[in-house]
Design a protein that fits this description.
2 helices
Length: 210
């Protein structure tokens, strides 16, 4: 069994409409879209570990299934806001369950976030107590899952707890400019307030075809 330590963001749904926002005005999203400033489900966030550089463990672990199954097809799209990879499987689709997740979540797509500056492209940041600075990466990969009971991503996205997002940080050997909507070179949002949320480490165990 392989074990993974991942950061999971559970979303309440209510994503911004694809044509209703842009990253030039990202600091004003809370004014223009109240859902982006209210509640306890905003992301990205700044993660501040304890004095040992660690986070407390979540009480129960989770399971990931069939993450080693290659898709039959992958569709890559630049939608003007991100680069999106949407795979398709003819058999089992990767899924996650357990830990803080209430139910089973099915993998839907992967998106990417970056800055025009190398080393400053991850949305979520990790605070380093020694340097008193945030540790950031070149790019952030976000893996979207929808709750299985809602059958589709479209139905789940507007439900409380309908989506879960796994975040992975990436280092790049080469750096390219990708044109986004309105010519903006970056698609990262500043870290949002935790609003009382506690960050914990969840231990995931791989099962199925892995």
């Amino acid at each position: 069994m392989k074990q993974l330590h991942l950061i999971v963001t559970i979303l309440s749904g209510l994503l911004l409409g694809a044509q209703s926002f842009n990253y030039r005005d990202r600091k004003d999203w809370g004014k223009n879209f109240p859902v982006c400033s209210d509640g306890q489900h905003q992301s990205p966030i700044q993660m501040v570990p304890d004095s040992k550089g660690e986070f407390p463990m979540y009480g129960t672990g989770g399971q990931i299934f069939d993450f080693n199954l290659l898709p039959d097809e992958i569709i890559m799209t630049n939608n003007g806001y991100t680069v999106e990879l949407k795979p398709k499987w003819s058999e089992d689709t990767p899924r996650v369950t357990g830990g803080p997740l209430k139910g089973t979540y099915v993998f839907e797509k992967t998106t990417f976030h970056w800055s025009k500056y190398k080393g400053n492209g991850s949305e979520h940041t990790l605070y380093n107590e020694k340097t008193k600075k945030n540790f950031e990466y070149d790019m952030e990969m976000q893996m979207y899952f929808y709750k299985q009971e809602y059958k589709t991503f479209t139905k789940a996205r507007n439900q409380k707890g309908g989506l879960a997002v796994f975040v992975n940080w990436l280092r790049l050997h080469e750096f390219w400019k990708i044109n986004l909507a309105m010519g903006y070179p970056s698609n990262i949002r500043p870290p949002q307030a935790l609003n009382g949320r506690e960050i914990k480490t969840v231990q995931f165990t791989a099962k199925g075809h892995y």
